[in-house]
Amino acid sequence: MALSACAASNPGAPSLSTTIDGSAPAAQAARETATPAAGTPADGSQARLAEASRPQTASARTAETAPSQTLPAETALPADADLPTFINGLARQYDLDPARLGSILAQARNHPGIARAILPAAAMPPAQRTPRSWSRYRDRFVEPIRIRHGLSFWQQHADILQRASQQYGVPENIIVAIIGVETLYGRHTGNYRTLDALYTLGFHYPDPARPDRQQMFRDNLADFLVWTLKEDSIDPLQVRGSYAGAIGLPQFMPSSLRRYAVDGDGDGHIDLLGNPADAIMSVANFLVRHGWQPGLPVFAPAKLPDQPHLLVDGGLTPTLDWSRLKQAGAAAEQANWQQHPLGVIDLKDEVLEHTSYRVATPNFFALTQYNRSYFYATAVADLAAALQDAR
After folding, report:
1. Which residues of the chain register pLDDT less than 70?
2. Distances (CA, A) of 117 to 66, 127, 136, 333
3. In terms of CB atoms within 10 Å, which of 146, 232, 268, 304 comes out highest?
């Protein structure tokens, strides 16, 4: 579900599978950035700042700037004195052996590189902040290599993509685009130990002003341990993913994996890393569970008025309707999307000193639940359109 995870590919990672057994609900709703979500691009794209599956409940947009790789030396990391409380609470809630949990967590490592990578851009000194640039962001994803590999992935998995689209109402090109943005079709799923990533961010989060983010990662650590220890026979020390803890082709955070991942091929297991069918069906299920509506475009073909910025609220839910947009001066031919809630989104480019605007439908906002960023959701939509045109 979810984040800008700059990670190297890991072709030797173990298969990540979880038995379908009606598992208990996750410890808490964690992010949903990605995410993810659902997800976090782990291919060095820096597409999101850190959350994945949209994987969660916050309503604020994720900043579209790439995280700086410099952590101020004076930043003090909080102690994890409450780790015993975490272990005992998790053991009681899920009937796990506290000694086993303690032994596993004793092997978790606080990874300074993860803390540096996740530090929010807003916490950086102004001189270190990367300018927001929609054009540069888009160019990282809507480009020939990703389109070429996307067409190959689409052809190779045509049957399961068609089935997912028919079952969930999510277009095939949207599913292909998400997996392409996230991991370049499985080529870059991350090489950080997931245990280390979630422990670092759950107990040593580098921004003390964001206890909500630390709690989100702590909740995902809980779900990760429940998934590996109780719901499947996976060694938690062997699982690898993005620096934010996202896993597999679609980069689901553990909390999203437990809630939204599905068995795509009916073999009784969910394997988001080694089984594209599971990844494809899980992406479609995630989007539907977060408001995707079959038959709607992501963007409405409407002409906006001269001052569209007055219609932007910056949120992650549509708050306008067509009558309001029409009253403000928007124009379009009659279409089914006009019966749905809408929003006007802004795509800022501080480098070019320009902002573009689009009319977004509920399906755009479903994409932002995978990763809470206008840039991310628009890049997915634009890559999907490019794949459709090239097919």
Report:
1. 1-80, 120-126
2. 9, 17, 20, 46
3. 146
Torsion region of 186: left, alpha or beta (phi above 0 gives left; psi -120 to 50 gives alpha): left
Whole-angstrom distance, CA of residue 248 vs CA of residue 188: 9
Residues designated as active site = 182
Per-residue pLDDT, 208: 86
CA distance 268 to 275: 12
31 φ, ψ (degrees, to nearest 5): -45, -175
pLDDT digits over 176-226, tens only?
A: 999 999 999 999 999 999 999 999 999 999 888 889 999 999 999 999 999
Q: Residue type for 339, please?
A: Q
Q: 3-state secondary structure string, the chain? A: CECCCECCCCCCCCCCEEECCCCCCCCCCCCCCCCCEEECCCECCCCCCCCCECCCCCCCCCCCCCCCCCCCCCCCCCCCCCHHHHHHHHHHHHCCCHHHHHHHHCCCCCCHHHHHHHCCHHHCCHHHCCCCEHHHHHHHHCCHHHHHHHHHHHHHCHHHHHHHHHHHCCCHHHHHHHHHHHHCCCCCCCCEEHHHHHHHHHHCCCCCCCHHHHHHHHHHHHHHHHHHHHHCCCCCCCCEECCCCCECCCCECHHHHHHHCCCCCCCCEEECCCCHHHHHHHHHHHHHHCCCCCCCCCEECCECCCCHHHHCCCCCCCCECHHHHHHHCCECCCCHHHHCCEEEEEEEECCCCEEEEEEECHHHHHHHCCCCCHHHHHHHHHHHHHHHHHC
Q: Alpha-carbon torsion 268, 274, 279, 282, what sign?
A: positive
- Distances, alpha carbon 227 to alpha carbons 95, 119, 230, 339, in Å: 13, 27, 6, 41
Cβ atoms of 249 and 273 within 8 Å: the answer is: yes
CA angle 256, 261, 267 (to 5 degrees): 155
